Amino acid sequence: MLKLKSSKEFSEEIEKQVSKLNSSYIDTVTYYCEKNNLEIENVVSLLSPFIKEKIKYEAEGLNMVQKSTEKLPL
How many Å separate Cα 41 from the centre of its chain? Predict the structure, then answer.
């Protein structure tokens, strides 16, 4: 079983893999979980707020989730 010391360590590993694989955060987290026999639901708490925001942004761009309404209409 994969052992990680902290969420910081896990998030750093995901960041390295994003650069190494030149892929999206969504694909990288999914690949990492599959490769290490981890459930995605179990690693969500290990992701940094920065990575969670990146995943949210990617999902909005792919129309997987509804876009946030944080911008004021002009």
Answer: 11
- Exposure string of 40-53, with b = 16+ CB inside 10 Å and e = fewer, is eeebeebbeeebee
The C-alpha atoms of residue 22 and residue 1 are separated, in whole angstroms, by 26
C-alpha closest to that of 8 among 55, 49, 58: 49
Which helix (DSSP H) or strand (DSSP E) does residue 14 occupy? helix 7-21
Q: What are residue 34's phi and psi, to 5 degrees?
A: -65, -45
pLDDT tens digits for range 35-50: 999 899 989 999 999 9
